[in-house]
Design goal:
mainly alpha
């Protein structure tokens, strides 16, 4: 495994430790985003996040931006229902 990563880092022109940090960074954000989308039942987002690798950028945007958009809509619907009663 180490020789495989070493070969990739050589081809990319970056050091092995930097490649390792990038892989861990991406893996952590991907796990967090996949967990959040699964808990919310957002199947489309789960598939998109699972298939597309953006070194954590899409995952961070999903966690802090896109997942909040759905929350605002559901909260506003609940507030409207309470006001009608």
């Amino acid at each position: 495994m180490a020789s495989y990563l070493s070969g990739i880092s050589t081809e990319l022109g970056i050091s092995l430790w930097l490649l390792t940090i990038i892989l861990i960074w991406s893996f952590v954000w991907k796990l967090l985003a996949l967990w959040k989308s699964a808990r919310k039942g957002q199947k489309v987002w789960f598939v998109i996040l699972a298939l597309i690798n953006t070194v954590g950028i899409l995952e961070i945007l999903y966690i802090y931006v896109f997942s909040k958009i759905g929350e605002r809509k559901t909260v506003s619907k609940k507030v409207r229902k309470k006001k009608k009663r």
